[in-house]
Write a structure and sequence with these properties.
Length: 215
């Protein structure tokens, strides 16, 4: 599954989407829909079937947002998230995902909006569950800087997933490398999450404090 966000601890989070079999079924249904006569019963039935699968996807994403936001709000004092504009993210995601030779491209048509929606909802819920503890930050250059040696070059970002430093050879998951850089921007023990398509966020480790009760 595609990575939707990475924490500077190395953990990766994925917004759950549809299973491959479900994606194939939606495609089949959409072809059937295109062939169905306007106003026909058949057309209505196919529409309903598509709607059911999409609703399943929405439910999965909501569950994921609730669970993930609760866990992060409990574990960390300060949560840093990339200041992002969802629309820009979707646009750039399309550009990024047309990297040749990978099968992310096949998913690009369906998934950028899903990732964007999942990330946007996650940030919203985090702000509600950890009021005053979510900080939006500017991620400039963090995806180009080597966390090991500090060398900054656009070529370091070898692909959507791989960071390979041209100076020292350091290799890491591209989003985890960026998350670690964001972490270092912060004072103290900071953990940063970075969304795969653009967004990133982070958190400072929580000092012993009463566990947040979350809504
Ligand atoms: Zn390096």
């Amino acid at each position: 599954m595609a990575v939707s966000a990475a924490l500077s601890t190395g953990e990766r989070l994925s917004v759950p989407g549809l299973r491959n079999t479900e994606v194939q079924r939606v495609r089949r249904l959409q072809r059937r829909l295109a062939r169905a006569k306007p106003g026909s019963n058949r057309r209505a039935r196919v529409r309903t079937a598509i709607g059911r699968i999409k609703a399943r996807e929405t439910d999965r994403r909501k569950d994921w947002v609730e669970q993930t936001s609760t866990a992060l709000a409990r574990r960390y004092d300060l949560i840093r998230v990339e200041d992002l504009k969802i629309k820009n993210m979707v646009r750039s995601a399309r550009g990024t995902l047309t990297v040749p030779g990978t099968n992310v491209r096949a998913k690009a048509g369906l998934n950028p909006s899903i990732h964007a929606a999942g990330w946007g909802q996650l940030v919203t819920r985090l702000e509600q569950k950890a009021p005053g503890r979510v900080e939006k930050i500017n991620p400039a250059y963090t995806s180009q800087i080597c966390h090991a040696c500090g060398h900054r070059a656009p070529e370091n970002r070898e692909s959507q997933a791989v960071f390979r430093c041209r100076a020292c050879g350091h290799v890491d998951h591209a989003d985890v490398n960026a998350a670690k850089n964001i972490r270092d921007i912060a004072v103290g023990r900071t953990v940063t999450a970075r969304g795969a398509l653009q967004p990133l966020g982070g958190a400072v480790n929580r000092e012993p404090q009463p566990v947040l009760s979350s809504g």
